[in-house]
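A student in our group prepared the protein record below, which I am reviewing. This is what I was given:
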Amino acid sequence: MPQSSHRPITHPFSDVPEDGALIEVADGIFWARLPLPFQLNHVNIYFIEDGDGFAVLDTGINTAKCKQSWAKLLAGPLQGKRLTRMIVTHHHPDHIGLAGWLAKDQGLPLLTTATAYLQANALLQDHSDQVLDVHAGFFKSHGLGPEAMQMVEMLNLDYKRSVLPLPLTYLRLMQGDTLKIGQRRFQVLTADGHAPEQAMLYLPDENLLFAADQVLARISPNIGVFPDSPDADPLGHYLRALRQIMAGLPDDTFVLPGHELPFYGLPRRCSELVAHHDDRCLEVLQACADTGKTTLELTHILFPRALDVHQMGFAFTETLAHANRLLRRGTLRAAMQAGVQRFETV
């Protein structure tokens, strides 16, 4: 479908929920925001009427401020309301961080994908010195020096601080499942790239999509390559998922994302995201045309502003995702020089 025929991106809600408040975005579906300690300073969560209570979609991160926001919701608009279950879209801390707390405090069962559940539990384990050395070697092989171990510690310790231990049982969600919530029947869709087997919920009768972080209205979600799978191609998986969404969902789908504002214009936004990553790939190819570049050098080209350790982690892993995509396409090649991998344009 030509991009010109896609519905323009529009936002039916210009206001966002205040701390501890809800906005009704569809009949019986409510939107709340929880604070995050990052540059992207919030995550959207949703409450869906479920019989005499509400199912909650995503949980927020394990911080005191996020728990305080939950306390305001429970003592305010949710006072006297029963929470029935929690649906977690993927394993990132801002979405699964308080699942263990909600399970214990509210008695909620957990519904998520197998990959999200297993990935979170794996990241919560203590790693041996051997594993940490392998992870540090990954960053060193892509251009980082002594700060490689700092990056490893940041990735490991931040996750454990941000995510509480999960419930010992869960209900698996899979692509193609039908999930009944109240009187509604949602189709479970899964997609890769930003997070493996990230769950989305689509309501055909109302043409409504809980998109998690797969499609955001203004920014691209982080697409990263990490030490446990250094040759992975998450960007290829992400672009394929975007094209499947464009082909499979109507132009006038109402999108409820994990961050930023709800919007219309899903196919156009998918097209924009594909174009954005194509442009990033072209930048990498041009940078490697005259001389080989390490991932660290490419990171400074793609993200020229000053970055703290947390932002560098996102930028570094995303830069490598673009390089790995180009390796798969055969337009970039890699060679080890003095223990450091350099990329050259073919």
Summary: The mean pLDDT is 95.
